[in-house]
Amino acid sequence: xxxxxxxxxxxxxxxxxxxxxxxxxxxxxxxxxxxxxxxxxxxxxxxxxxxxxxxxxxxxxxxxxxxxxxxxxxxxxxxxxxxxxxxxxxxxxxxxxxxxxxxxxxxxxxxxxxxxxxxxxxxxxxxxxxxxxxxxxxxxxxxxxxxxxxxxxxxxxxxxxxxxxxxxxxxxxxxxxxxxxxxxxxxxxxxxxxxxxxxxxxxxxx
Length: 206
Hints:
This protein has six helices and three strands. It is mainly alpha-helical. The chain has a three-stranded antiparallel β-sheet, with helices on one face. β2 and β3 form a beta hairpin. The radius of gyration is 25 Å and the shape is globular. The N and C termini lie far apart (109 Å).
């Protein structure tokens, strides 16, 4: 008779989707797709699945072909525009104040937060500093921090990317959540008061 813990032990099974994903990562780590990288990646992926079996986990992942095409098209367009912007700033040599801004996402699942964070970091100029999973907040380093319109545009771009990610891989509940507009933006930090003027020095001469 089997023990009660036997049902919870990970089973040695070959998950084709996991093998394919590990193979893709292996080829990316070894400088692109070649036949040698493909074959060695499959061998390594199968060995990992057999030696380190994972328990069954429901990722609540949905593959929506139309949403995936829209996400890929938007990211390709955003990469071109962002690359041109970064190149123009580097050539002009213009320096603007930089800061870290917080963008709170609407989805609270770890999978959607991680996918949005990865998509954001893939765009040139989108320097992801930190991810707070408890509050679903991304922290981004950006230039032109003194331009309030630029800060608002950066937050809107992240929210648009989040919506595209959810419509490509999320559940119906998550799609309904991103259909609602984001909350109000955090208020601007108060301007520090100007330092008092130094007292006038008296002339010691009579």
